[in-house]
Each structure stands twice: as C-alpha cells, then as structure tokens.
Amino acid sequence: xxxxxxxxxxxxxxxxxxxxxxxxxxxxxxxxxxxxxxxxxxxxxxxxxxxxxxxxxxxxxxxxxxxxxxxxxxxxxxxxxxxxxxxxxxxxxxxxxxxxxxxxxxxxxxxxxxxxxxxxxxxxxxxxxxxxxxxxxxxxxxxxxxxxxxxxxxxxxxxxxxxxxxxxxxxxxxxxxxxxxxxxxxxxxxxxxxxxxxxxxxxxxxxxxxxxxxxxxxxxxxxxxxx
Length: 227
Known about the structure:
alpha+beta, four-stranded antiparallel sheet, two-stranded antiparallel ribbon, about 20% helix, globular
C-alpha cells in the first residue's frame, strides 16, 4: 500500500493549499482509500464520552465543511434622537440573533457512531453507558445528549458563530451608517453549504426589511465537508 504525506500551507488564511493537493492527486489519477488528519494533537480524558477511566486521542477521519456568511445593512445614519425605523446596528443585531437562535438539525454521523461503538466497552457513565449498548438504535438519543454537552455538541450539528462586526458609530449619539457582520458556519451535512446557509434569508423576519433597510446576505467562502 502506498502512502502520501500532504502538507497545506494556508489552512488558517486562504485555504488554497488543500485544494491544490486534491487537484494534483486527481490529475495524477490517484484515488485515496482514506485520509487521516493530525487530530487534536493531544491525549485527554475520555470523560466527555462517558469514559472517565481511560485516556483518548482523536484521529480525524473527516472534517466538517466551512462557510463564511456576510450580512450587510445600508443606512444614512443620523442623530440618535431620530431613530425612525430602527438603526442599521439594530437590524443587523436582529438578523444575527434570528440566525443563531435557530439551530441546524442534530444527527449522529457514521463516524461518530463508530466512535461510540469503539468506546462502548469503556463507557461507565449514564446515560451513555446504557445508550451505547445499541448505538444504531439509540443514535438520535445519543445525538441529543451530545448536543447538550459543551465538548460534544460540535460533533453532531452545524455550528453557527458570529465572529466579525464592522461599521459601528464612534459616538454614542450618532446612528451608524453601513454595517457588516460575518457569521462562520462549520457544516455537518454536505448539502448545507447549498441549502442551509443559502436559505438563511428564511431565518430573518420581515421587520428586517421595513423602512427601506434591508439585510443583504453574501456567501463569502464555503468548503463542503470531507466525507
């Protein structure tokens, strides 16, 4: 069996390295059986998985998709004593809140099912101890449990994280003009880059379009998940 070592140089910036590697392998006619990422790079307690008596190390068999969504609001601004129709900051904040308050579906992927099946003999904490006796039959319940856990919830759903906001006023009594915000999505399902994120308009209520103020949405970048 032939192995390949691949190193991307811009994972945290342009994300072009991984695509170049993929294009090169495809051009060479190489079809990979599987790929292994570097994992979390550490050995840690298995307590989050209900196995506090063992230490585990993650080996990443897939990677979630990635999308940056920019929201823009245009406004003439003005003095804060005349905020008729709401400010651009208000409408942008409402749009951000409406998007983040509607989570994506929760599901136990085949990779996570395999993880729990592998860990099942070592899981001693309830309710996971009972649930992992039949991971397939209890997949929805396990996924719901993971979703409520700070450590495990990113493994079972698309995450939504507002990360950037630009254009706010420099003075407390002046309404801002044009404003932008960016939301980062980590996609758990392959179709969500095309449907879930593009469908974000449905998450913003009609009030965001009143009084001539519209929330414009632009998909800046997206990469589908790797599995």
